[in-house]
Each structure stands twice: as C-alpha cells, then as structure tokens.
Amino acid sequence: MLVEQQWQQLDWQKSNGILPVIVQHAVSGEVLMLGYMNYKALQVTVQSCQVTFFSRSKRRLWTKGESSGYVLRVVSIHPDCDKDTLLILAEPKGPTCHTGNSSCFSPATSDWVFLYSLEALISSRKDANPHNSYTASLYASGTKRIAQKVGEEGIETALAATVQDKFELLNEAADLLYHLLVLLQDQELNLSQVIAQLRIREKSNS
C-alpha cells in the first residue's frame, strides 16, 4: 500500500490535482472500471481500504458501492512510471458496473477472467441438486470419485498426445482441467493457490 510520502511524489499538478485511476480485479486481472482521485480521495482510499473516487461533476468524494454495497476492497495501489496514473488491484464485493456486469468494460473477457468465472461457477454447484448438475453430482459422489475422474482424464489426455490427435488432445485437456478445478474446490483450494506455488518454484529456480 502507498504511504503518504509516496502520495506526495505523485504528479498532482499535471491534471489540476486529479489523477485517473484504473481498477483491476486482484485475482482474475479483469479491468473493472476507470475513475478519478484527488489527494483526499486517495487518502480516504488508503485509510479505509475501500476505493473512493472524486466526482468531477458533483465535486465531492464518493466510495464505490456506497449505495449498492458492492464496494471494492483495496489489495494494492501502484503508480505508473510517470506518476500521473494509478492502478488499484481490488477485490469486488459484487458486480462493479451499474448494469450488473462484473466490469464496466464487459464483455471484454480474457482467458484468465473466463477461468476465474468458471471456477466460481464450479464452486457454486456444491449446493446444487445432483440430479440437475453434473458438477453437483461429482461433489455428491465424494473426493475419491472426483480424484478418480482426474486420473482417468489425465490418462486420456496422455493417450491423445501419444497418438498425436491434437483435436482429441484439446478435448481431453479441457476435461482434465475442468475435473481438476472440481477437485481443488472440493478440497477448499483454488487455481490462484496453484499459481502461487508455481511462482515460488519460479523464484527458487531463477
């Protein structure tokens, strides 16, 4: 998080004391919205850990989600190289856009955002009716069955590669990834934690 000394080093004069602020989902990387901050808005944002902007039309501070409750919890704040723009990584407590979309830039969805959304959907199936959802039926069958499915899909993926059937390899890889996500959710784990382990390995090997 920025400290007050870093706030003062930002180029507040370039745009008459107001900086553009890009808000990005801290986990999925989805760009959520663009807003503006003056010095006071940044101060409130840092102190409250909730994204607070300066309204250029109403000339007042406003906290994102102050009416809807869908606040943006600040994870980290990063100035750009010219110190005249901020990037805020945040965890949204609901849809960011007033239209109900997750982002004000929807439907601009990256592959990682799709995976994050898929993971959230898979997690939501834990309490669904097993008769109406294949994912829910996997949860109902228990950890051993889910793990068995991951093993089966892993073997089928390897076999598709062995016979050099690229189309089938893609299909089997998709099945493998899906069942792996189910297994992770079953164990109260997620893809971000897997990536964190990969980052640790990257650092240890560099």
TrEMBL record:
<keyword id="KW-0511">Multifunctional enzyme</keyword>
<keyword id="KW-0547">Nucleotide-binding</keyword>
<keyword id="KW-0067">ATP-binding</keyword>
<keyword id="KW-0368">Histidine biosynthesis</keyword>
<dbReference type="GO" id="GO:0005737">
    <property type="term" value="C:cytoplasm"/>
</dbReference>
<keyword id="KW-0028">Amino-acid biosynthesis</keyword>
<feature type="region of interest" description="Phosphoribosyl-AMP cyclohydrolase">
    <location>
        <begin position="1"/>
        <end position="114"/>
    </location>
</feature>
<dbReference type="Pfam" id="PF01503">
    <property type="entry name" value="PRA-PH"/>
</dbReference>
<dbReference type="InterPro" id="IPR038019">
    <property type="entry name" value="PRib_AMP_CycHydrolase_sf"/>
</dbReference>
<feature type="region of interest" description="Phosphoribosyl-ATP pyrophosphohydrolase">
    <location>
        <begin position="115"/>
        <end position="206"/>
    </location>
</feature>
<comment type="similarity">
    <text>In the N-terminal section; belongs to the PRA-CH family.</text>
</comment>
<dbReference type="GO" id="GO:0000105">
    <property type="term" value="P:L-histidine biosynthetic process"/>
</dbReference>
<comment type="pathway">
    <text>Amino-acid biosynthesis; L-histidine biosynthesis; L-histidine from 5-phospho-alpha-D-ribose 1-diphosphate: step 2/9.</text>
</comment>
<dbReference type="GO" id="GO:0004636">
    <property type="term" value="F:phosphoribosyl-ATP diphosphatase activity"/>
</dbReference>
<dbReference type="GO" id="GO:0004635">
    <property type="term" value="F:phosphoribosyl-AMP cyclohydrolase activity"/>
</dbReference>
<dbReference type="GO" id="GO:0005524">
    <property type="term" value="F:ATP binding"/>
</dbReference>
<comment type="similarity">
    <text>In the C-terminal section; belongs to the PRA-PH family.</text>
</comment>
<keyword id="KW-0963">Cytoplasm</keyword>
<comment type="pathway">
    <text>Amino-acid biosynthesis; L-histidine biosynthesis; L-histidine from 5-phospho-alpha-D-ribose 1-diphosphate: step 3/9.</text>
</comment>
<dbReference type="InterPro" id="IPR002496">
    <property type="entry name" value="PRib_AMP_CycHydrolase_dom"/>
</dbReference>
<dbReference type="Pfam" id="PF01502">
    <property type="entry name" value="PRA-CH"/>
</dbReference>
<dbReference type="InterPro" id="IPR021130">
    <property type="entry name" value="PRib-ATP_PPHydrolase-like"/>
</dbReference>
<keyword id="KW-0378">Hydrolase</keyword>
<protein>
    <recommendedName>
        <fullName>Histidine biosynthesis bifunctional protein HisIE</fullName>
        <ecNumber>3.5.4.19</ecNumber>
        <ecNumber>3.6.1.31</ecNumber>
    </recommendedName>
</protein>
<dbReference type="InterPro" id="IPR023019">
    <property type="entry name" value="His_synth_HisIE"/>
</dbReference>
<dbReference type="InterPro" id="IPR008179">
    <property type="entry name" value="HisE"/>
</dbReference>
<feature type="domain" description="Phosphoribosyl-AMP cyclohydrolase">
    <location>
        <begin position="33"/>
        <end position="105"/>
    </location>
</feature>
